[in-house]
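Worked Example 4.2. Read the sequence first, then its structure tokens.
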Amino acid sequence: MIKKQLWKLIFLLGHFLITAGLTVGLISAEWGLIPLIFLISGILISGFWVVLQSQRSKWWKQRSTQAGTNAILATLAVLIILGLINFLGIRYHLRTDLTETQLFTLAPQSKELLRNLPQPMKVWLFTRDQNYQDQELLDNYRRQSPNFKYEYVDPQARPGLAEKFGVQHLGEVYLEFENKHQLVQTVNDNERLSEIRLTNHLQQIISNNTAKVYFLQGHGELKITNNQTNTQNSITQAVQGLTDENFTALPLNLTENPQVPDDATVVIVAGPKQELFSGEVQALQDYLNRGGNLLLMINPNSNPKIDNLLKDWGVKLDNRLAIDISGQSLGIGPAAPLVTEYGQHPITKQFGNGISLYPLARPLEITSVSGVESTPLLRTKPHPSSWAESDQQSEKLEFNEGKDLKGPLTLGVALTRKLSTQVTPIPTSLPTSTSSPTSTSSPIPTPSPTNANSQPTTKESRLVVLGNSDFAKNGLFEQQLNGDVFLNCVTWLSQKDQQTLSIRPKEPTNRRITMSTAKANLLSISSLLLLPFLSFGAGAIIWWRRR
């Protein structure tokens, strides 16, 4: 009897020590020596008690003990696995977007901008409606960079802050960066926060420079302003894309002043239908020779008479029409090549196997020229999927050996040429005085000592030639990667190498279902009542037949 009481005391002592160790540790919030001594002693005593009891009673060999132990171990294993999953989920963030248009994934351009944020940036949302969709988008931004933060503000609760930003309406969203504020948009029930606008404003507020892009006009080129009679022949969507990226688009007429303005960062010739005057071509050549940057988009069946300009760069326009039959299964005609193969160049390096579309394009011939570095940008699929068709009048498009050119065809090329220029020193002024009492000391420019030591610096001139301009027209600009091809070309030509060349965010496809109140009620009743009732009835019938 005494021996039995002793075992019971040992059992209670083990549990007492464990309880004491946990209590001391939790209350003091420090797991020092004393709580550890209590815990270790209690665990050892309890373990000793369990081992001795099992040897005495042989309960370990009992079937019920083994079954219970297996259940306990299985339960512990599940709990440990769940704990590990939660631990990894908190420590490492991994998400998989299964939506068709990657609705919950930021575009590559947004990610790259956020990763390269030089300073903290904050988004202020002056609204009392903390919409889940907006928060999801902002959380995606915040995950990309610790420098990105956002905060909801009730304008009535913090009127001073609202006045500081100049808030006029509820729902206004502002971007703050280095003491600069910029209105992004106004959110409401019908218009939620847009990744396109937020990323565009983010890029604008980071970049301080505004570059001027001139569009040559006067030869049937695409219009940079809205044409009321023919909006499809305009390039206003592309111009808006340039504006969003801090470029200023301006028209250029070389017949009025046969010289490209000195402040031109990029000159674009978009689909001329008539030939250029020799003086205009010479002006473009002079512009390139002094370090200019030119984008030529030349459609087939047009001859702008710029062969001499292109010859200096090793480019020749092919008069045949690019044919690509790989897109016929998608309902795309053979005269609209689908490009999925891009050159290893900053303009296209992020494109992967993305699609861009070029209706009515001409191939380019590239030859090597000393001092010029060329990189093909756009390539069609190899023959027999694509070829250059010489007989454009034929109703049946087919490859003719000896006349047509087998694919793959080059539809775009980027070229650079190094230019050596002499540094123009800034003259320094040294004061000199004369003996005449009426004269005053006047600065006389004298050559700087650095003149003799000035070294020539290397300047680069850039040229991009595309065998199509229609891909940038309104309606096609937003298709697939067309807009990214155009904007990346201009950005690369601007020689702002610190700017992001990537894939820009696109408008998500609207897949919302709009239904009437009656249909919504019918859907609710059928899903909450009808289907469960049918399932329950089927189960009851089966039970009744099997009983």
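Now turn to a second chain, presented in exactly the same format:
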Amino acid sequence: MSTANMIYGVPLQLFQIVVGLVCLAAFVGVNAVLLVWMERKVAGHFQRRPGPFEVGPYGLLQTVADAVKLIAKQIFVPEGADKMLYWTAPFLAFLPVFVTLLPIPWGDILVVQKLDLGILLILAFSGIGVLSLCLAGWASNNKWSILGAARAVSQSVAYEIPLLISVLTVVFMTGTLNLSTVVEAQGSWPWEWLGASQPLAFIIYFTCAVAETNRAPFDLPEAESELTAGFHTEYSGMGFGLFFLAEYANMIVVCGVAAALFLGGWRGPVADGWWWFLLKVYALIFVMMWFRWTYPRVRFDQLLNIAWKWLIPLAILNLLVTAALVKLFSINYYV
């Protein structure tokens, strides 16, 4: 291998991945703190809760107090639980997030790895999340946890289908599975983004993204008022903390993919750059928080009806129309 492709004796590509993962790990930690504070502020304003405004200036110290409480809590394994699977589950929920963040383009050159199959990689590793919920419910030896895990599997199967089909419409139009190429194929103005030509696919994707991250009104796997906390009822301390971090990191992933596929990614009016990407991602996260603190939780039959009776038929119809237009009028001119 040429020395031009080596840094300190390490292959350049490997060096980039290691540095990228370190940066992503730091970002995931900072992002969790920011989103906890943001979630409390949104809840405080939407539901007139005074708590998020009381601890420290602008409620900033409440997040610190929560983090200290979480770290200081006793960690234990419930009686009769499968210890190996019990502790495997939270790590299995958290670690795949780093792989899904690798191909997301934060800017023109601000991407850890430009992968030709980046979209496929994200979809494949996102599926591991539901496996971790299933393990957590099974290994906890708790009936509420089992019910939460069963709900998580049913919900994931139902909503992954329309999500995949909505992503497929974008792939049909751009002819690529590379997220960076999809962003480059879009313009800087909103009417040049794929969300303008595929509004139905965008709405279906975002609805499914809310369900896939188990956020209200689709938080049936946790459902505090019915199942205590569902699949993570028996987890305390940093066991629960890893599930918590994974949820916020997954929100970044699904909103980052939405921004890249439908909202032009780092492209925006006046000047393209990473600031547009972050603005779009956090705007979508704000909408998810808005949903949580506004809409009541749907019943489980309603949850499945939305997916099987509405989202899947609409997604298939949209895909067929898109495929016909692409074939008849050669619409895939983006690449």
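Notes for the reader: The CA atoms of residues 188 and 271 lie 8 Å apart. Strands lie at 6-7, 10-11.
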